[in-house]
Amino acid sequence: MSELLEQQREHFENISDKYFEARKDVNHLYLKELMWRHFFKDKTALKEKSLSVLEPMCGYSEGKKILEENLGQVASYEGFDYSSVLVEKVNKMHPDLNVYVHDVSTFTSDKKFDVIIIIGGLHHVPSICSQVVKNLKQNLKPNGAFIVLEPTHNNYVFRKIRERIYNKNTLFDQETERAFVLKDLNNLFLENGYKIVDQMYPGLLSYILFYNPDAFPWLNFGGKGLVRLLFKLDTLFFRNFVGRKLSFATLSMFTVD
Asked: What pTM value is reported for the model?
């Protein structure tokens, strides 16, 4: 297991600069703005709280920025990542941020948080996902929100497409990354005592074109007007059977009693 984590760390450090620069793209940022705003627009209970936030596998700590833009000021924040190189970059960009090096597979803390957020992290540690989710449960306050955005598929054809991409595209490491069958992702949480609060299926046309400009730069065409138009079309399917079946990603909120 430690060998796979080390391999994943080295892989992401090798692509981190390309990842960071590509995700400054205007279309990508605008799509994320629309997506997260849509997801949080009915989460009024969270907007009324002074939130304490934990972001495991934090990468560049985009979870904090997303929460602040959509829910208001974050009262306290801490994040951690396995990559010391990545944490050093974050600390240089945001020296006042509480971000440190830690392995999600061994993380323990007595603190409890209003929100735990993981953006595209769990599929990088597929063999220990259950352990991670189980351990983090003790850090979530009763009725707190565990927010997860992960690559998913819910049909055979899309699974095969993704497997081919993971094998052929150097931005992915097929040996250490594995997207979820949506049922398996849900069971990962349900079997560890969580409840589903909300799920949205944003991995449709606008996501395919604009969410991964680092991996698929040739799909990133047009401007914000096209992003807005395609996103509006996608919203028709965000919470129904069609979207669930066709989406390449799922944005979820879980909680515990």
From this structure: 0.89
